[in-house]
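question for whoever is on the cluster today: can someone run the full assembly for these? two chains, 756 residues total. i dont have access anymore since they changed the login thing
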Amino acid sequence: MSDHIVWIVLFPLMGAVACALSGALSKKLCYPISVISMIASVWASVHTMMQAIESPVHEISYILGGWSLDLFPRGVGIEFRADLLGALITLVVTGVGLIVTLYSKVPVQRETPGKEPMYYGLFLLQICGLAGIALTGDAFNLYVLIEVAALTGYGLIALGSNRAAAATFNYVILGTIGASLYLLGVGYLYLKTGTLNMVGIREVIEAQSLYDSPAMQVAFVLVLVGILIKMAFFPFHAWLPNAYCHAPSTTSCLLAPLVTKVMIYVMIRMVLTVFGVEFSFESTLWTEVMPWLVAVAIVCAAVMALAQREIKRMLAYLIVAEVGYMVGGVWIYNYYGLIGSIFHVISDACMTLCLFLGAGIILEKCRTTHFDGLRGLFAKMPLTMIGFFIGGFSIIGLPPTCGFFSKWYLITGGMVSERWEYMVTLMFSTMVMVVLFFRLIERIHLAVDESGKNLGKGHGDLGLTEEQTRFDEAPLTMLVPLLIAASIVMIIGVYNQEVVDQIEVFLRAYNLPTGVSYK
Amino acid sequence: MVEDGSIFSQLLVDRLNYFIYIILLLIGLWAMIAKNNLIKKLIGMSIFQTAIILFYVSIGVKEGATIPIYLPEHDPHGSHLKVDVNGSEKMLPPEVLESSLVPGYSNPLPHVLMLTAIVVGVATLGLALSVCLRIYRGYGTVEEDELLEKLEREDARNTGRPRRRRPRRAPSEKAVATEKLKSGNPRPRQSRTNRKGAKAGSSEGTRNDSTKSVTEKRKTVRKPRKKTSPKPKEDNS
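^ ran it for u. tokens below:
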């Protein structure tokens, strides 16, 4: 049976409806319903992944509504396709969704009391939309799912304080511009090719060699600019920091690892599957221009992250920098860059999850995420801090974590393409992240205050009272997801070759330069 | 001035739809970026989305084509009636829709896509308006410059830096949360700011050390609340 691919999306969808309805009975039902539907969804996506690996063409296709490929040409009916890339991203989306759902019990009750049914309904719809984006094989369906994910995201953010509502307004405006530009681009694609199926569009482009068509060039620019706005690429990032910083902590745990990464997946999908390698890289100027824009983006985002004094806001700017890494990995145009980019999507989702879960726990226990409130936290919550710092080390790129390996491929790609500006800024940004996280470690482990004055008496004395250093861990429903996320970061790092193998199988179908001929 | 093939003829006659859609798109974009009033921004957003709908609908339309519903003779599921020259009626089986006849129908797909896009647009607008409502309730304005000023002031006030005076214990927080739940107060934020205002008034009063001024100042603090709170009720009635 190849129906599992549909169940990935259907379980959260049904869970969302059940949550919204169960509010009439009891608000306590929402949490178990969400957990169950997410477990089922993860099970379905693991199954789909296995099927995609085992199938001879390495992809699974399911056409909704019974318009089977045997009776009708491709493009009639909406197709759900899971090639290895789509299946991997779906697994990441549902996995992160499950972990955040497990985590959500305490913070949701505290931050949005009385609104649990609506909150979990939106939450599951968000996962449904994101998983759908990763699975769909239809360009217009992708627009609808992008809007499903975006609308639920606006709702989830605006459920926070009034400040969050004000931040949401900017997000609504920019998000709508982004999605509408994408829609317009799809219109031009349809105008020129007469189909909305992603593979169908590429087949038409290749058959009619539409490489120089002005309409296709316009479509390409519109689609990609729309997606760049949605993924908060540097000049368009203005909506992201405020939205993620003021949102309820569970919301930022779900949105921060997934939304921007899934949009990068959409960009890779557009570049490889819809427009095709030859169109995207050979007949446009993007390969020349984008690495420079990426370089500017990474430097600016890293410097802005350095200026923040609050963990959540700092992490938000880190995401903007990481988006720069992944976009650059695509546009340096070679095999290793794309491996790095896809692997970084996966590993960045895991490590951002780790960091935001950690920040959420700090917020829950200390009621602040400002740097000044962190002194001596390691004595108080050692396990949380270990989890948080595994995420931090992965962002920096220390070897046993997955961040090291993805960055390794990105840098290899930069060297093969001789894109030194990209490589140098990647290194610069790594240095900045070292500073960021070791500054945090200093705050947490040492007794140094804002002015750099040492408050303790040295030799491990933090100058804190007994009460401040007493062991006081977060509740288990929050701590266990963080530790799971941290161990996933390590496991993906250790077993990186298994993941890269699948990505390589996916990329081999596209004719990408490997740089082997390079001396 | 309007000759065949000239740029004016192309813009105003041949491609009038596309010309208008570009203009609408730019108007919408300009309103979203440049307008100061949040509601006007949303109107701009609507214009922007409508422009795209116009573009899609224009794709599907063809000159001289009919609506995309089977003409009687092409309906694959039924027979059709034909009247001869003599006036006698005959039932004929369906004719095959040849590919040469397809241009006689306009393309339904873009129109159907736009039905979905309209739904998405309505949902976005509804959500954005409700966000606006919350902004208005929280900050008392929908003008962007005033809002930004207030937001800056608020951000400067709570930088997230821990306050030393506030090592509140967990149970008291819970009690506050349950109280809020019971009273069903939808605006916890505003009530907090009001409480702060009351506190500020009382502290100033103690500095002056006269009970009269305390009551006066409390009154001045409370008065605008009384004035503002009945307003929405009147609107409702």
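summary bc i know u wont read the tokens: Strands of chain A lie at 59-63, 79-83. Chain A has 22 helices and two strands.
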